[in-house]
Amino acid sequence: MDQKINLTLEEIVTISPNFMQELKFLSNKERKYLMSLKSINSQEQTTTQEIIIKDKMHYSCPLGMIEVSVGQEGHIVKSLVDTGAELSIIPEVDSIKARLPMRVLKMRYRGIGGHSTAIVGLSENTLLVLPSGDERRIHFFVARGAVHTVIGRPFLADNGIRLEHSQLRVSPGGG
Q1: Residues of 145-175 as b/e, b for ≥16 C-beta within 10 angstroms?
Q2: Which residues of the chain have pLDDT under 50?
Q3: Three-state helix/strand/coil letters over the chain
Q4: Backbone φ and ψ of 13, nearest 5°
Q5: Whole-prediction pTM value?
Q6: For position 111, what pLDDT does the model report?
C-alpha cells in the first residue's frame, strides 16, 4: 500500500500534540548549541559541547472514530481508525460483551508514547461490519484496561480499505 497523504502543519499538530513540544525542544537546544559555539569560538576554547536529543520523535495518524459491529451478535463499538497502528485492538470488556472467541495470549504491547498495555488474548477471524454495511474479518488483540478499539494498518492494507477524508467515510476498494 503505497499511498501519500498530504497534511498541513495544523493537521500534524492536531494529530500529534507532542510534535509541537518536540519542535520547540529541538529549536531551543539548537539555539543554545549555536550560542555555545559562538562563545567557544570567541574565547578560543577547546571544549566539547554535548546536546542530548530525545531518541525518537513519535507520531501517529489516527484518522477518526467510526462505529462498527463486532462479532456474530453485532455488538456496536466505536473504533479508532489508525493507519500507524501495528495491531488491531479491542478492550477485554468489549470482547466479553461481543462474546468473541479468544485464544489466551499473555504479552505487553508498548504504544508510541511509551505506555505499556497488557494483551490477554487474540480473537481471530472476528466478524466486523463496517459503516457501509460491508462484512470483513479481523484479528483483534484483546487488551486489558482502558483502551480504545483500534482498527490498525494490517487490517486496512489486507482489505484494500480506502479512506475518504473529505466525506469522512471508510469504504472497501482501492483507488
Answers
A1: eebbbbbbbebbeebebebeeeeeebeeeee
A2: 1, 43-59, 175
A3: CCCCCCCCHHHHHHHCHHHHHHHHHHHHHHHHHHHHHHHHHHHCCCCCCCCCCCCCCCCCCEEEEEEEEECCCCEEEEEEEECCCCCCEEEHHHHHHCCCCCEEEEEEEECCCCCEEEEEEEEEEEEEECCCCCEEEEEEEEEECCCCEEECHHHHHHCCEEEECCCCEEEECCC
A4: -65, -35
A5: 0.59
A6: 72
All structural domains of the chain, each given as residue ranges with its CATH number in brackets, are 17-57 (no CATH), 62-172 (2.40.70.10)
The amino acid that residue 136 corresponds to is: R
